[in-house]
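re: ur msg from earlier - yeah i can do the alpha-D-glucopyranuronic acid complex, just paste it... oh wait u already did. ok heres what im feeding in:
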Amino acid sequence: MRLFFSLFPVVWLAAGATAVFAQSTALPPPVTFTAAQDQQNMMDQLGIKALRPGPSGNEKAPNHANYDESKANPFPDIPDPLTLNDGRKVTTAKMWWDQRRPEIVEMEEKYVYGRVPKDVPKVTWTVTAVDHEMIGFTPVIAKDLIGEVDNSSYPAISVKIHMTLVTPANAKGPVPVLMMFGPAGFPSPNEPRGEELEHLNDSMKALLLQQDPSLKQVFADHPAWEPFKASPLFQPPQLNADGDPPNQWELVAAGWGFALFDPASVQADNGAGLTRGIIGLVNKGQPRKPEDWGALRAWAWGAGRGLDYLETDPAVDAKHVGIDGVSRYGKATLVTMAFDQRFYMALVGSSGKGGATLLRRNYGEAVESLTGGEYYWMAGNFMKYGASNAAFGSKTPGDIPVDSNELIALCAPRLTFISYGVPEKGDAHWLDHQGSFMATVDAGRVFVLLGAKGLESYGDYRTAKMPPVNDGPVGGELAWRQHDGGHTDAPNMKWFIQWADKYMGYTPPQ
Ligand code: GCU
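and the outut:
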């Protein structure tokens, strides 16, 4: 008896200890920060006390961005894609592939866009539904897909990547596919018609009568009325403000397929979301470290997983998959193309700062915009270049070890089309067309080194003049075209398709 009583507390304690132990090994829920709290957390990690405020995008505001070309180049010498960090010149393709390209990749990851973690879990793709649709006059097969990320390491966050693949139904073989950043989903759902529609309407009427028998009289008075009506078999395309048919129409009419890829299903487009989505899943719900990936790199990673699926689909010519997006998705497009060399081509739409334009330029959107409200697109480290007061002093865009000419150069010699519209139609000065052209011209030297063609005929980037609007595409495998429409790539789509077809040697089956 004494023994029992003396053992009892020990047993009880041991049981209690097991419960405490189990609790401490369970992972805490994701951190819930506002964007401001998350940004502050990163500033604290980096020792940043104050950031220079970004300019206003409102051209009438007193603190509006600089639009004076004579003040646009405070750091006129941009980093040279063809000089190694130790100062040696890159003179052969081998030096580019073995030495310079890895150096640029490392700097872009470390200082600008962040690193993709080594242990990102596996993605398993499932076709959730297949629909037979019409896009314009072309019958297509549309597959809706979910790429589920293995979250066994942190079940509190689930990531389901959403992509919709659309290919012409009558294709004689695998087709080139343009993956487009934006909402996914069936583009033109196939509706029940004829007998199926009649059946639906009969059931619907029966259901309504069951709910309210007095409707019998209403139905008797309107015998021809049906609750569901068929939409017209053919609907003319919704032309955009610039008079262009939708990209999807142009692509399928040209014998291409397209994939709608939803970046938001990978990573939210805000700072509060950084402890969730794919970035949060890998970090087990904890805030980022300075070299971790930002949203742009996460979206680009997701596009790469989309391409993993496309490589398994026999309808797709996986050697000829492109990536496309506009604005922030134009930036994501360039990042995708730069880092994932399986993408054959890119249509980079109105990408601006963080995309094609030089970070060193002071014209329109500034580095301080990307370190301010847009900080979550970038690596945490990037915030240093907007710091006015920090443990390390202050830094400016001139301190960034790389620039966008080198990001574009990472795409070489693959097909890279830099696209813009005009400010008069809404492709704002904010985007810095001139700075994007300068970066494109300079990046062209790497294309030339690799046996391709860029914009070498435009001379030095410092003095290169943009070609007239609607000229081109000018260049070669690296091309430029400014269309006369707004903040969209639609007016350039037909030019992109023709240009890419030429390099691919693709003639769609008639
Ligand atoms: C803002 C932002 C740009 C971005 C654009 C968009 O203008 O400053 O960087 O490209 O939004 O994505 O719509």
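cool cool. The chain has one domain: 69-188+248-504. ping me if u need the other ligands too
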